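DM from R.C. (forwarded with permission)

"hey, sorry to bug you on a friday — could you get me a structure for this? deadline for the figure draft is monday and I only need the backbone to look sensible"
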Amino acid sequence: MADFHQNGIVTTLHNLSNRSVEELEYDLEHFSRFRPLGLILPSLYSELQGEALPAIVKQLKEVPYLSEIVIGLDRADRDQYFHACEFFSELPQHHRILWNEGPRLQALDKELSELGVSPRELGKGRNVWYCMGYILASGKSESIGLHDCDIVTYDRGLLARLLYPVAHPQFNYEFCKGYYARVANGKMNGRVSRLLVTPLIRALKRTVGENEYLEFMDSFRYPLAGEFSFRKDVLTDIRIPSDWGLEIGVLSEMYRNYANNRLCQADIAETYDHKHQDLSFDNTEGGLSKMSIDITKAMFRKLATYGQTFTTETFRSLKATYYRIALDFVETYNNDAKMNGLTLDIHQEEKAIEMFAQNIMTAGQRFLEAPMERPFIPSWNRVVSAMPDVYDRLITAVEEDRKEFLESK
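My reply, with the result:
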């Protein structure tokens, strides 16, 4: 059971009583009369064949309050799209699948690209962005949740607690970030958040100085959680990265667009486990190595927009400061793990820190070498300005894909 301490400048909503899922869902059914609720599921086709997503769908079948579910499907050919349609057909809620590799959405993406308003990179950010556009186009949801499709410890209480803050008609939250303990199989996980993001933020405070943005980022208990919820109006003006910097990018946009009292974080699960990425020590273009570079660059870019100047010397100082802070955290986490009967591999923890330290320099160098880089996907407000009928065309493409599937049966 969590404590009730409020830290930082963002409201924390705790799990103080283990309130039953049934009670939460009863409230959410009532709230949905005033604020229809939706869910975005960004998925790879391969996840349909894993252990997590079938169990997630089984749980979602029991959720009574959702007006729609929007599934973004990546890396699927025609037969695999048809299989996905069958796979998700057991969902009783209104649902639609965005077949991102399908010819209709690819044609629309090409036109958007010619106008300079489409995502430039493949990945989760692109998938989520198109799903956000579809949610705006459908007009069926006022408050929306988003979570990953590889959560092996999933239960529908996670979704209920995630949506509750933005669904309650008497709450004024525009955005809620989920958090949880990354513990599974007797081990403490979540290395990128524990060993990179938090020590990096603390190191930035020392090297570039205290500022409200860094204090804001340091207020989140699990800044890299892929689970968050938001009101529909958030989607029109948000600009998100298309790479692994998605979660940091979303938080940064919330800081830019909203007062702190419109944002919160909520304890949504006692434990949480999902697919683990390789550290990829020798490959900066894959696994946790690429993730760490993308995340670090996302923070540098955001600080630069607030007037911070970076040089090679800045990054050298930052790397040294980060390294010392991160090593101190290893001792803290090791003690925490031992007290809770968990295991922690100190050797692997310190190897990860060494890689992250090197990648801070790599990210800094790439940042300096590409000052005109445009990493953020344009907001949907801008897309509508460039292509006024984009929502209608997005709906039509999805419906035509669905029609083709139904005719094939």
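R.C.: lifesaver. The chain has one domain: 11-408.
me: no worries. The mean pLDDT is 93.
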